Amino acid sequence: MQYTILPNTNLKISRICLGSMTWGQQNTEAEGHAQLDMALDKGVNFIDTAEMYSVPGNPKTQGSTESIIGSWFAKKGVRNKMVLASKITGPNRFFEHIRKDLSFSKEALDDALHKSLKRLQTDYLDLYQLHWPERGVNIFGSRDYIHNDAWEDTIAATLEHLNLYVKQGKIRYMGLSNETPWGAMRYMEEARKGAPKMVSIQNAYNLLNRRDEIGLSEVILREDLGYLPYSPLAFGMLTGKYLNGATPRHARVTLFPNYSRYHGDGSFEATRKYQEIAQQHDLSLTQMSLAFIRQQPFVTSTIVGATTVEQLQENIGSISVNLSEEIITAINTVHATIPNPAP
Ligand code: NAP
């Protein structure tokens, strides 16, 4: 495993982070624990979860992923070996079963954080992230930005609330997710005025969605932020498993067809081309896709997801794959002709 320091923290994290959002629906507790065991064994010390998991969001299974991680900590006694990240849910009418108030008010943060800590059977989180901004932004597949004049800027107040938990020892650091360059810089502005600094941004980033290279990568490097890419395999598309009209059994998009973000024509076309490159160089498309992300200078640790230990083994194994200039040039040539088919 390779390790790095999450910028502006004293957290030493593996460059592969274990995502968890399938545990509690697609995966049982035993399967989640088996993935955690394997990850720990292979040197992965960084876990990402959220109060809204497992996915798809559902009142019956909400919180199940954190509970599965909590029962693993209780069983194994390894909380202090792991760097644990979770998230508070942002505004979205589909998640009102979690809380009526899905803002980042003091009341909402109190409710979210304390319930997460209880389910996770721990008294602190290493990283607490805002799952998506309070204001409307173009995320989760939307290309266009629709401006909402009515949003009231609560960023300074949110930082103040979060800082109380830092002082109480309940969270060590705070981070962002699904954030834009404007949002990131707005938080940095508060940090320059003396507020605590958001240390990381967790966004979708993969070969079918390289949008963050355009604006956010510079913000990440110049502001010394951690970047934690999620969905690095585009929901499994970048394993090649959906090519040639395949509908693999038990696979995410077969089970949940409305998860179609990475299933547009452009994504299939680009994936076929990326697969050709991988085959020409005797690589698995999966490992080539993960290595490409890890090799970007603005990427801190890639959040991988898996539904079997075999998948997880392949994904963690990508840590020792290094793409040559020739392969990167070939990838960039495809990207130039089919840029960001799945934003
Ligand atoms: P992903 O890499 O795009 O997709 C992972 C899925 O692809 C697996 O669940 C599995 O699904 C399939 N897969 C993975 N490895 C494979 C392999 N080697 N061979 C064949 N199939 C493979 O990642 P993701 O699950 O979307 O996201 C990873 C993590 O990021 C999540 O667990 C979560 O912690 C985080 N995340 C955060 C946000 C956010 O808004 N902040 C959003 C999404 C995810 P099947 O077996 O079902 O095909």
Q: What report would you give on this structure?
A:
With 343 residues, this protein is of the alpha/beta class. The protein has a single domain (3-233, 296-322), classed as NADP-dependent oxidoreductase domain (TIM Barrel), CATH 3.20.20.100. The chain has 11 helices and 10 strands. Strands 9-8-7-6-5-4-3-10 form an 8-stranded parallel β-sheet. Strands 1-2 form a two-stranded antiparallel ribbon. Helix 6 (216-222) links the parallel strand 8 and strand 9 (226-230). The two termini are 30 Å apart. NADP nicotinamide-adenine-dinucleotide phosphate binds at residues 19-22, 26, 48, 131, 177-178, 202, 230-236, 239, 241, 251-252, 286, 303-307, 311, 314-315.
Largest sheet composition? 8 strands, parallel
Q: Return Rg in Å.
A: 19 Å
Number of helices: 11
Rough outline = globular
CATH architecture type = Alpha-Beta Barrel
Ligand set? NADP nicotinamide-adenine-dinucleotide phosphate
The total beta strand count reads: 10
Q: Name the CATH homologous superfamily.
A: NADP-dependent oxidoreductase domain
CATH class: Alpha Beta
Cα distance spanning the termini: 30 Å
Oligomer: single chain
Which fold name fills CATH's third level, the topology? TIM Barrel
State the share of residues found in helices, binned by percent. Answer: 25-40%
> Which percent range describes the beta-strand content?
5-15%
